[in-house]
């Protein structure tokens, strides 16, 4: 948690920063194609640590039931209220408020292109964390890591969206998706792609 601070110069000028937590944060948790309890934890815990008074979570329920792991994560992370709505309309509900969903100061959390577009639209009315594009990962591997681990790490991002990218570079000639001459070329490829997630699986 970041604390407020002040500094007084010799001439009496006071400089500083006052850190004030938001009153209410809105957390969008994807749930259309899969369940992401990790999204709850990665967004709710920092809000609670920062001192946000109330965390409101929205999560779609395409089959009519909230995933138990998502609810457990919400309980563990201290989420105050949960609403079973998703998509752009959930972002709008958080940003503007409805009869049942309270208006928040900031909307955070990942989502599909419709959620990202809605967050772009409400920015200015409320704060947002970012406008995230499709998930992507680039793994740089030297051939010494268990291939099952690498495959699972690639799948962990590929599952998010049909437009997600999962890329592997390797100096080992067996099974490489992008075969590079050496680690320098692997670095050049990684810099060129500039992925959202970069994993270095090297000794």
Automatic annotation (TrEMBL):
Keyword field contains Zinc: yes
Cofactor(s) needed: Zn(2+)
CC per GO annotation: cytosol
BP-aspect Gene Ontology terms: L-histidine biosynthetic process
CDD domains: Histidinol_dh
Pathway: Amino-acid biosynthesis; L-histidine biosynthesis; L-histidine from 5-phospho-alpha-D-ribose 1-diphosphate: step 9/9
The keyword Iron-sulfur is annotated on this UniProt entry: no
One GO MF term attached to the UniProt entry: histidinol dehydrogenase activity
Keyword list, A-Z: Metal-binding, Oxidoreductase, Zinc
SUPFAM superfamilies: ALDH-like
A Pfam family the protein falls into: Histidinol_dh
NCBIfam families (alphabetical): hisD
Protein name: Histidinol dehydrogenase
Organismal lineage: Eukaryota, Metazoa, Ecdysozoa, Nematoda, Chromadorea
């Amino acid at each position: 948690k970041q604390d407020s601070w002040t500094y007084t110069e010799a001439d009496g000028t006071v400089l500083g920063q006052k850190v004030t937590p938001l009153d209410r944060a809105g957390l969008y948790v994807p749930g259309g194609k899969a369940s992401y309890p990790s999204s709850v934890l990665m967004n709710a815990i920092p809000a609670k640590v920062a001192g946000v008074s109330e965390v409101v979570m929205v999560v779609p329920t395409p089959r009519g039931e909230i995933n138990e792991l998502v609810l457990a994560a919400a309980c563990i992370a201290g989420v105050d209220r949960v609403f079973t709505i998703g998509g752009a309309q959930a972002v709008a509900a958080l940003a503007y408020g409805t009869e049942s969903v309270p208006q928040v100061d900031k909307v955070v959390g990942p989502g599909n292109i419709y959620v990202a577009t809605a967050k772009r639209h409400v920015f200015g009315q409320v704060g947002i964390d970012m406008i995230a594009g499709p998930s992507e990962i680039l793994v740089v591997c030297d051939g010494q890591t268990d291939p099952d681990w690498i495959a699972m790490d690639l799948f962990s991002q590929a599952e998010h969206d049909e437009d997600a990218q999962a890329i592997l570079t390797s100096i080992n000639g067996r099974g490489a998706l992008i075969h590079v001459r050496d680690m320098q070329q692997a670095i050049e490829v990684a810099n060129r792609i500039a992925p959202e997630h970069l994993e270095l699986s090297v000794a």
